[in-house]
Amino acid sequence: FLGPQGLKLPDEVEEEIEALVFGDGELAYPTGAQIGRIHDVAESRDLYCSYAKSLFRGSLQGLKIVVDCSNGAATAITPRVLAELGAEVVTIFAEPNGVNINEGCGSTHPEALQQRVVEEKAHLGLAHDGDADRLLAVDEKGNLVDGDQIMVITALAHKALGKLEQNKIVVTVMSNLGLHQAMAKAGIEVLETKVGDRYVLEKMLETGAVIGGEQSGHIIYLRQNNTGDGLITALNLLQVMVDTQKPLSELAAQMERYPQVMANVTVTDKEKVLQSPQVQDAVAAAREQLKGRGRILVRPSGTEPKIRLMAEGPDEGELRRLIDELARVVKEAD
Predict the structure, then answer these.
(1) Which of 1-5, 49-53, 90-94, 184-188 shows the lowest mean pLDDT across its residues?
(2) What ranges in 106-196 are assigned the alpha helix state H?
(3) What is the DSSP string of 34-61?
(4) Which of 76, 126, 305, 317 is most buried, with most CB under 10 Å away?
């Protein structure tokens, strides 16, 4: 849901709505002129496509792009906009039937896109999720380019053009160490929030940052939209490719992506586990082992009875051993 300003509802408003819906009391239904109105904007698709195209400077002529629509909302939009901007578009997973959305495709399953980009000898691939607020890319060699890399590419381009207002970006605690290093090298400040694009947006509005997002591909370009928008993310990425005349693989190489090893441990009491001395000691020991070379992140899931573990650093084997040990300690503490 979006509020009157076009922003996602704050947590407390969502909780208030949930309490009303799931509560036992009778709801006071509006009557007469107080009843809400539905406005069916039949031309909304055309308006949106026109707006998206207006954001792009120049042409996509000469670029071959494979688009994975995830059998979802992007199906009638992204291929059309890219083609109207001059690109040669190859579309996959663009036959939504109401049940096949995200099914083995899209940004959560990019393998088919990676293969198709190589087969088609395309310049890049673009992968949406079902509701198209997310975007991941695939370079001309078939390598995945995630949200962190897209933010690095576009933030550096914005800075070069004098358009990175406040000289900062907003990311979540899950963003890769390589992003932080690339931004530090460029003199760009990185602000962190907890996981969730709503928290990214709140921090952007608070600090004046104009680029923010998540590794998963939820990226917000605040001067163009106030929510994650996969097509607008794609156009920002393509703008850099067109302006620099560089392949995506070269642009993505501006950030070194460090291995991240993750695990989810189901528990009965998240707070009890996180407060237990044995878990805290194990986390401290793991952090000490990685000191100066990586990091350990331990957090409760916001939606499930799980503790989420993440280790990041240069040696994937070492990270896996640390996560296995932490998972064992968390299970024992439950």
Answers:
(1) 1-5
(2) 111-120, 147-160, 177-185
(3) GS------TTHHHHHHHHHHHT--S--T
(4) 126
